[in-house]
Design a protein that fits this description.
Radius of gyration: 12 Å
Order of helices and strands: HHEE
Helix content: 25-40%
Number of domains: 1
Number of strands: 2
Number of helices: 2
Length: 53
């Protein structure tokens, strides 16, 4: 999901913000995660970190 996937996520995020909606994305791609307002990191089924924009 490199550049074209990241572009799609950014577009989806913009549309969600315009409509007052939430989008949940699960990814292993740090470029996609960087586009999020909130990032929750998990390891072995447990929450290990959170980053809020």
């Amino acid at each position: 999901m490199r550049s074209s996937g990241t572009d799609r996520i950014k577009r989806l995020r913009r549309l969600a913000h315009e409509e007052g909606r939430c989008v949940i994305v699960v990814t292993h791609d740090p470029e996609v995660a960087d586009t999020a307002d909130l990032v929750l990191r998990m390891k072995d089924g447990a929450l290990t970190a959170a980053r809020d924009e």
